[in-house]
Amino acid sequence: MTRIAQNLNGVWDFAYLGDNSPQPSIQFNNAMTVPGCFDCMGDLHGQRGTAVLRRFVHAGGMQLLKIDGLGLAAKICWDGQEIGVCPYAYMPEEFVFDAGKEGWHELRIILDNRHNQVFFPFYDFYGYGGVYGDVTLEKLPEGQPFIKRVHVSTRDFQRRLIRIEVEFSAPVTEEIRLVFNRSQEFTFAAAGEKWCHEMELPGYELWSHDSPNLHSLEVYCGEDCLATNFGIRQIQTAGRDILLNGEKLFLAGCNRHESHPELGAATPPALMLSDLLAMKNAGMNFVRGSHYPQRRHFLDICDRIGMLVWEETLGWDVKPPVLHSEEFLANQLEQTARLAASSYNHPSIIIRGFLNETESQLEETRPVIAALVEATRKADDTRLITYASNKYEKDVCTDLVDIVAMNPYPGWFDANWETIRDIQNIRPRLKALADAMPADRPLIISEIGAGATYGYHDHCRARWSEEYQSDLLEEVFNAVDDDPRYSGVCIWQFCNSKSYINGYVLGRPCGFNDKGILDEYRRPKMAWNSVAAKLRSRENK
Ligand code: ADA
């Protein structure tokens, strides 16, 4: 039997309470969509506080509630009882609970979009209040163990050797039936709470960004069934090279925020697809999901169209003493384990990251990074692990990760501001950076770019003109093309994204980070076309 799922997306009752705490007798005098961000619509633009979403659901018995990310934190109540909390913005969450007798019940999501110890106010991306992804409810088998998780990984791509790991809510004694691609069946005796099996699937096609062949797997046990897609593919390193199914890979792509002026972080799947197709058509094969867990639809699209993904946990530019505190590390470790478990089966994810631009020049940060590498590897040993660094030559942690990833900004932050242009320093700076990095592992540029005001042109091709951004990125690709030590470039960023308002000196005009090569409405700046032309000419070489 397959599980019956209810999609709870739609229009919910809504009350904005601001700084007041929720009382049982709330007046739900407004409406809010799920998914949707309340602080980029109506009279709540930019507001921070508590907001309550409510709807009634017809259900009963054991249920699994799934929330594919929200912000910035929430409490979930069923008939007034708390059934779970969502402390981590953007993290996909799951709650198993007893819904009581079959009938109508009240579900509330009590959101709080005030900054907290997970989402700090200084982050250079807006902390939106709302439910970012789908909300669904799945009926679980009654009085019997259910399947908690199915993980499929490739152990040897040449032999098509995969490993299937199944976790149950309690020990099972019944047999396990696997069905691949809705046609090929295998039955096994099962015992215990965890079951692991390796098998070869001869003739099954490999997954890659060029040939994104997906396979389906249904796992049946007792009255339960869990279905997933997977791809057979292996990502490895050999010296400075990144290999996908044994073939050398050059990563070319963009950093992308879930961000849109009218939709906040609740971007619909159609916009995700449109963004990803635009990248693909521009010759890109790689996207960094900066700086947090990605929506399931986004990863499903990447799996299907063949886009390689760097997924990361939330932790942006965190400084000591918080960075070196036990509490912070415990939060990071928990996020790492949860995220790896939840996005494990997506073949598109090739890199797992954490701690963007951390204090990796300090010896005290080594244990933090080492612990996160270990936790990531324990949760998922089938991806490459890294963090994006802005400590460059001073970084003392590059030996801990599989890929060295640097965020240099030559010609922009790292520039001579006495001139209006500083393109000539890009090539020497990238060369010096590569010279200083470990020679025994791949090196990629995880961010690079320049601000540009959409529609602003200048004869002198000065900073903030579309010309300057375009020239800078062209020069980056020229320099990297001439330097085989670089295995990838990820532009900062795909499109402009809303940042903190009233930002400080670094320049966030109108409250936007304007380093997008598209503007916030996805209109191309000159750099979009020059990068696309460059990448297409590389493809044809
Ligand atoms: C950093 C950071 C990005 C963004 C960028 C910028 O590299 O990782 O999130 O803030 O700087 O535009 O300044």
What does this structure look like?
The radius of gyration is 24 Å and the shape is globular. The strands form 8 sheets. Strands 28-27-26-25-24-32-31-30-29 form a 9-stranded parallel beta sheet. A 6-stranded antiparallel beta sheet has the order 3-2-5-11-8-9, with no helix packed on it. It is 18% helix and 33% strand. The mean pLDDT is 96. Helix 5 links the parallel strand 30 and strand 31. The protein is of the alpha+beta class and 541 residues long. Helix 3 packs parallel to helix 4 (366-379), helix 5 (426-436) packs across helix 6 and helix 6 runs parallel beside helix 7 (526-539). The chain has 7 helices and 34 strands. Bound molecules: alpha-D-galactopyranuronic acid. Residues 124, 291, 356-357, 390, 407, 447, 492, 513, 515 line the site of alpha-D-galactopyranuronic acid (ADA). Alpha-D-galactopyranuronic acid is lined by residues 124, 291, 356-357, 390, 407, 447, 492, 513, 515.
Beta-strand fraction estimate = 25-35%
Specify Rg, calculated over alpha carbons. Answer: 24 Å
Count of individual helical segments: 7
Instruction: Specify the oligomeric state.
Output: single chain
Beta strands, count: 34
pLDDT < 50 stretches: none
Major sheet: size, sense and barrel closure?
A: 9 strands, parallel
- Specify the helix fraction band: 10-25%
Which structural class do you get from the secondary structure elements? alpha+beta
Enumerate the distinct ligands.
alpha-D-galactopyranuronic acid
Query: Biggest sheet: strands side by side, in what order?
Result: 28-27-26-25-24-32-31-30-29
Outline, from the CA principal axes?
globular
Average pLDDT rating? 96
